[in-house]
Amino acid sequence: MSAVFLGVRHHSPACARLVERTVTELRPAQVLIEGPAEMNGRLDELLLGHELPVAVFSHYRDGERASTSWAPLCDYSPEWVALRAGRAAGARVRFIDLPAWHPAFAERTNRYADAEARYAEATERLCRRFAVDSSDALWDRLFEVEPDSGLAERLDAYFALVRGDAEADAGDRARESYMAAWVRAAVAAAGDRPVLVVTGGFHQPALRALTASGARGGADGDGWERGADGWPVVPAPPDGAMAGSFLVPYSFRKLDAFAGYQSGMPSPGYYQQVWEAGPEAAADGLLRVVVERLRARKYPVSTSDLIAARSLAEGLTALRGHPSPARIDVLDGLAGALITDDLDRPLPWTGRGSLTAGAHPAVVEMVAACGGDRTGRLHPRTPAPPLVHDVAAQLAGLALDGGPEATYRLDLTDATDLERSRVLHRLRVLGVPGQVRTAGPTHGVDPVFTERWEAQSVLGREAALVEAGAYGATLAEAAAVALTERTRSGPAEADGAAGALFDAVLCGMGGFSEQLLEELSSSVGELQVTGPLGEILATALGLWRHDRVFGMARGPLLAAVIGGATEQLLWLLEGVRGSSGVDFPRLRAVVAVRDAVLHAPELLPVTREVVAGVARRIAEDPQAPVDVRGAAFGLARSLGRAPGAPGASSDPARVVRAVARSGADALGDWLAGLFALARDEVTGAVGNDDGRGADGASESLIDVLDGLVSALSDEEFLSGLPALRQAFTFFPPRERDRIAARLLERRGVRGSSRSLLRTTADPLLIARARALEESVSRLLTRYELDATP
Prior knowledge:
Elements: E1 3-8, H1 13-26, E2 30-36, H2 43-46, E3 54-61, E4 66-73, H3 78-88, E5 92-97, H4 120-130, H5 135-144, H6 151-164, H7 170-190, E6 195-200, H8 204-213, E7 242-249, H9 252-255, H10 268-277, H11 279-296, H12 303-319, H13 327-338, H14 361-371, H15 386-397, E8 408-411, H16 415-429, E9 435-439, E10 450-455, H17 461-468, H18 475-486, H19 497-506, H20 510-523, H21 530-545, H22 547-550, H23 556-575, H24 584-599, H25 608-619, H26 626-640, H27 652-660, H28 664-677, H29 680-687, H30 701-710, H31 714-728, H32 733-746, H33 754-757, H34 763-782
Helix pairs in contact: 1-3, 4-5, 7-8, 10-11, 11-14, 12-13, 16-18, 18-19, 19-20, 19-21, 20-23, 21-23, 21-24, 23-24, 24-26, 25-26, 26-28, 27-30, 28-31, 29-32, 31-34
C-alpha cells in the first residue's frame, strides 16, 4: 500500500486537527514525521508528560563551525499530534529528517523555519486574490476558519501552488532525499497497511514526486546508507566533533512571530485557545483579555468600548465572508474601537516581524494578549546534559543555592569566596539567569576586593542550563569554550578581546587567559583602532597592577601586551586625522597610555620623555581632531609636572584662548579631551588661594573659561552649549560644586553653589526657550507690535 502524505503548516490548529483525524481514520502501520531522526531512540522521553511548549535543542561543534538549533513543539503542532496520536493508535512512529548537525542545517537555527520567503510571489498573488494584507491572514481565511471538510484537498492545492514557484536549496534537497528514503523503507516494511507521512507543506510535493518515481540504484538509489533492518542510518557527527540533542522548556514568546520567531503561526496564545475551544471562544477570550490588560495599565476602556469592539469584530467577520471569527477580525475590531489616534505605522498584524518600539499601547497589549505568557516545563525524569548536574553540585557545595531571594557579598581575598565568585561569573558568561553582579571590580583598573550579587528572575534558567551544555560537560569547560567563541574572530578584530580577557580572569580560566594573552601580545602591534586597543591596554594594565585579587602574576605576557599596546597607541594617535566631535573610546585610550607611563614605566619600550614629546606634537598639530589635541595637551602636562620630568608645556590659558577662536563647539571638544586627562587644570586652580593656575600660571583656567563663555553671543552660546556641557561631565559632583562656588565668588554673589548646579529644567531647554523669546521680541519690534496698549 502506498504512503499518504499530509503537508502541514507548523503550529497550525487546523493542520493538527487534520492529522489527528487522519490517524484515527487511517489506522496506519507507520507514522513518519518531519523531525530529528537522532531522537527516534528517545521518543519515550518526548512522551514523559511534559507541559508544552518544549523543544528539541541540538548542538554541534568542531574545529571549523559551531551551531545550535531548535525543533519546538506545542499542543497544536501537527508534528506533536502525529507523535501522540500515532502512538495511541498503535502505529510505529519515527522522525525522518536529518539530524541538526548535518551540513543541511548549517545556516538554520530553527528546524521548522518556513520557506515562505521563497514562495512569496505565489502568496502575494493569493493575498491580492482574496483581498487580505498578509500571508497569515490568507492562511486563516483559507484554512483556520473554514470547515474541516475538504481541508486535505485545499492544503494539497495550496502547497502545490506555492512550491511550484520555488526552487529548493541544497540543504532542502538533501533533507527531502533523506526523508524520501525513510518513506520508501516504511512502505516496504508496512506491507498492505498504510503509511502516514506528516511534513511541512513545502516538502510535501517533492516527497510525493521522489517516492512515486521509484528510481533505484545500488542499495536504494538515493545514496543513503541502510542499516541491517533496512531503515536509513542516522548520519553520525564527524570524528572529533561534539554534538547532541536534549529537550528544553520553550515558551509562547519564543514561538511568536511578533517576537521574531521564524516559523509557523503567530500569536500562539490565541491559537492555543482556538485548539482547545474553537475560534468563537478564542475571539471572546481575546476581547476580554485585551480589555483586562489595558485596564491594568490604567488605559481607559469602558464597557461601551468593549461592546463596540465585539460588534466591529462580528461585522468584519460577516463582511469578509468568514464562517467563524478570524484572528485579524478580532484585532481589527479592537483597533477600530479602542484606537482614536492617528498611527504612524501599519498595524503589526498586517505583516510579519517583531513589534517595533513606540507602538501604540493598545496595540502592544493586543499583541501581548495574542502571544500569551505560557512557559513549558519538563517532566522531572527528563534526561539532562552533564553540565546541569555539575552546576547543581557546585552550587550546593559552595552554598550558592540559597533560593530566588538570595544575595551574596563576597570577599575576593578569601579563597572560598573567590571560588564562589568564579562559579557565578562562569554562569554569567554562559547567559544563565539567577544572579546579577551589582558591585565589584571592573576591568581590573580599580583595586576593589569585594563583590555583591543579587537575585534576578530565574525565568528560563532550566532551558539556559541545558543549552549551555552544548559548550561542555563541566561548568569550567563550558565557560572556557564560550569565551573562546567570543574571541573566535581573533584579536585582530579587537572588539571584545579586552572584555573576554577580563571575563576569563574573573572566571578563573588560567589556561585560557594565558592563551588569550599570547594571542594579544603577538598581535597588538597590528591593531589599527584606538578605542578597542585602549580597552586592551587598560585591562592588561589593571590586571598587572592589581593581581592581588585575580592571581595574575606580573609575568612577561602581561608586560608584552602593555608595552606593545602603548607603543602602537602612540603611533596611531599621532597619525589620527579627522572630524569634529568627541570620540570617548579614543580619549579612554589616551588615559590608558597615561596610566601605563605613570604606573608601569619599566614595561614600556619608550621613555616618559618620548611620550611627553609625542603628546606635545599632537597638541600643536592643527590637523589632529580637536578632542585629541586637548587630550594630548593634558597628557603632556600630566607627565611634565611629574618629579624629574622636563618643564611644563604651554600656558593653558593661552592655549584655551587660541582654541576658542575656532568657536564654542571646538572649545567644548578640546576641553573634553583635556578634562579626560587633567581635570586638575580647573580644580587645582579653584583650590588655590591666590587664584593662580594649578602650576603657578598667571591666570587660572576657570577664570579664563568664565571670561570666554561670558563673552559669547547668545547664538554662539546656544550653539556651543551641548559641547561645553559634555566636557564638564568628566567632573564628579564634588568638583563641580567647587567650580560653581568659584563662579559665584567671581561675581560677588552669596549663596549655595547648588543653585548653579540644579535647575528647574534642562539647561539646554532653558537656553533654547530664551533664544526663542528673543527671536519673538525682535520680530515684534520689527513690525512695531511691541508697544504697550
